[in-house]
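Notebook p. 47: complex prediction with 6-O-phosphono-beta-D-fructofuranose.
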Amino acid sequence: MSKVKKVAILTNGGDAPGLNAVIRAIVKTARTNGIECYGFIEGYKGLLFNNYVKLDLNTNASGLLHKGGTIIGTSNATNVFNYKVTNEDGTVEYKDLSDVCVQNIKNAGFDCIFTLGGDGTQKSSRDFSLKGVNCIGVPKTIDNDVAHTDMTFGYNTAVSIATDAIDRLHTTAESHHRVMVLEVMGRYAGWIALESAIAGGADVALIPEIPYDINKVVAKIEERRARGKQFSIVVTSEGAKPIDGELIVKKKLDDGKGLDNIRLGGIGEKLANDIEELTGIVSRNTTLGYVQRGGTPSAFDRVLSTKYGTKAMELAMEGVFNVLVNYKDGKMGYVSLEDVVGNNKVVGAASGNTKESNIRTVPLDDDLIRVARDLGMCLGD
Ligand code: F6P
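Predicted complex, C-alpha cells below:
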C-alpha cells in the first residue's frame, strides 16, 4: 500500500541531460501505482508562486526519454529561504519566503516533493524537510560533484561531448602544429576535465583540485616538441587556477544571497596566452560552454536517470522521505539529506566532501588521477 497519493516534481539549478528521463520514470512509476503526479514550473520559483501542472504521459509528459533540458523548466537563481525582493523605492531586501511554499504544498495536498538538483537544491530540500515537507532529492549536475553519490545523471553525456570536442581539436591541432586548449565545465570539481582528457588522449589536464604550475605545463609541451610532436592538447576545468593565482571570475551576480553567485570562465584563454608566450607555439582556446549541458542524454544517462526516477518513486511509496537517492558501488540506494548537506554531514572518503564544502571533488588518490599520471599526462603539478 503506497504511502503517497499525490506527488510533485521540481527541477532546479543548471539543467543536465537526463532530467526529462528522470521525470518520465517518476511519472510512469506513479501511473503504474495509481499515484497522481505534478510538476512545479521553474524549480523553487514554481513552489513560491504556486505554479504547477499535472504531468500526463499522454500529453505534456510524453516522448521524454531522449529529450534534453527539462519540460518543467528550471531556475538557478531562486533561494526561497533568502529571496531577493526589490522594494518600490529600489532598495533590495532578502526575505525568507519558505513558509509561503510550505503553505502552497499543503493547500495542493502534495504528499511528497521530488527535488531534482545539485548541492544548492538539496540544501533547500533539506531545509524544507525540517519544516515538515516530505522531500526526496535526486542528484543532478553535469559536474558530478554531489556528495554521497558516485555518479550524477548528465555527467556521462557531458564527458562524451567534451571527448568529441577533444577529438576534433586533435586533428586541427596536428594540422597547424598548435597547442589547443579546451575549457570545460566544473566549478570546484575536475571530473569532466579529467575523464574527457583521458578519453580524448589529452596531454595536459588541469583541475580545481590541483592548482597548476604553468612551468610544468610548458615543460610537458616542450618535452613533446623535443620528441617531434608538434602539437599538444590541454584540457582545463573552468575552475582550475594557477598555484599563485585565483579563480577567474567572469561575472559576479547578485541574484540571491547564499547562492553560488559567480560565473566562471576565462582560464582557457589565459592558458592559451601564457603557453604561446612561454613556448612560442601558436596556441588557441576553445570554451565548450553550454553545449555540454544541452541536447539528448547518452544511453548510459537515460538508464541512470531511469534508475534514479524509479527509485525515487519507490522510496516515496514506502514512505522513506528526506533522503537523497544515490548510486554507490553500482547500486541504487539512499542517504538522509541531513547526512548530505545538514548537521550530521558525513565528511571524508565515504561521502567525497570536505568540512568546508558539500562538493564531491576528485580525491587525489582517485583511479582517474593514477591513470592520468601513469600515462604521463601533466596535471600541472
Ligand atoms: O553546475 C553545473 C554548471 O554547468 C557549472 O559547471 C557551471 O559553472 C554552471 O553550471 C554555469 O551555469 P549557469 O551559467 O547556468 O549559472
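Notes: Residues 14, 76, 118, 141-143, 185-187, 238, 263-264, 293 surround 6-O-phosphono-beta-D-fructofuranose (CB under 6 Å). The two ends are 57 Å apart (CA to CA).
Next step: compare against the earlier run before touching the bench.
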